[in-house]
Amino acid sequence: MMSARTIFISYRRSDSQWAASRLFDTLAQAFPNDQLFMDVDSIDPGQDFITVLEDKIAQCDVFLALIGPRWLTDSLIEGQRRIDDPEDFVRIEIGRALARDETVTIPILLDGAEVPQEGELPDSLRPLARRQFVRLSHEGYRTEVSRLVAAISKAFERSQAAPPTSVDSTRKNMIPRRPSRFILVAVLATIATCLSLAGLYFAANQVEDFKDRADLSTIKECDECPELVVVPSGTFVMGSPKDEANRRPQEGPQRGVRIDRFALAKTELTFDAWDACIEDGGCGAYSAPDSGVGRGDIPAFNLSWEDAASYIEWLNTKVSGTPYRFPSESEWEYAARAGSVTPYYWGSDPDRAHANMGREVCCIGSAEEFDRWVGVAPVGQFPPNAFGLYDMAGNLSEWVADIYRSSYNKAPEDGSAWIEDSISGWEERRVLRGGSFKDRPWQVRSAQRFSNARNWRLEIYGFRPARDLTAE
Fold first, then answer.
1. Is the pLDDT of residue 333 over 90?
2. Does the pTM of the predicted model rise above 0.90?
3. CA separation for the pair 420, 109 (Å, rounded)
């Protein structure tokens, strides 16, 4: 049974993951940790996910419903809004909290999100539109969160000493006992995260020197700048275990790596972004042919590592200092895995519902099921990973900073790029990660590595820039 006076933080990973983590960190300074529950991140390894979730919601005193810009409109693959799905966990959590007189439900609007109207909500959630909302913004976070802490304290003071509602009596119709395939995959991925050998955690460290914007889940600091996702600090096990199917020797040996907080482009760099560089006189005036598939939101391909470096150099002319850069190889894999320890960030098997990949034979694109693109797909067509990053498997292979080595022996363990001179004979080769629309399904695994000469251009090569989150 929960200890008295507890707080449940409800959020949608694709919408408000990092705001939730930041809020958890802040509330942990004001309330004991055992009074805070933030969805699956608070479930111990080995516990029954559904049972624990039911217990926590049925007995919480203050329920915080985090609502970001995509909370209402985020959709399933079939096009249905998640909030309209009776098996959606966010819908179930909030509906259950609203049904309890003992629980104070506080909706929190993030990043400029609008107040949902009653007519936009399922029947069980309509009372949410009549609740007094709290706003948290990057500009006023410290003041606004202080008011929220005060409101929670007052709610605790008003809480009744009456026994909590029986869990057994409230559990019956709360969470479907036969969850949809999508939810089941999400649950299994979450449990895998909890069992990570490296103790991976999602709580982001505070960074106070990035323009007071550390609470944002995304960053876009200039018109030409790409939208970035804030990737939290953490540790993970890099590479693949020896028993992983289709493993290659260069994917090991596995080792623990510490990653400091940084930001990574939400999508692969698009032709729109590349063309902006060309029009401004940057990128070496190399137009990067699109092979007739079009430009716009198609990820820019036919790019060498040196081409990507020229874009990063141009991008840094738009901001103060030189914060934009390639991600290191370890940063890239950490961001791609997003807490997963399975071969793919969505699970153990390749799935065309999650990535644009090729056939089982070499170097031929394929359009099957949800993956309807034989060639490259526009960015953001597949579900993001748990960090909110798109196309971290398939579509285009992405250049990273590191010089290629044939193993991880003596590789850095601090997240830095491995770029010092080596005796491997590969000095001109740089690493590519993620696989492409032409690669076989097993080649888009999170641990898969490729390489090529830094001046080599192919229609399957692209990249996404990273950004430091440190003082300049």
1. yes
2. no
3. 46
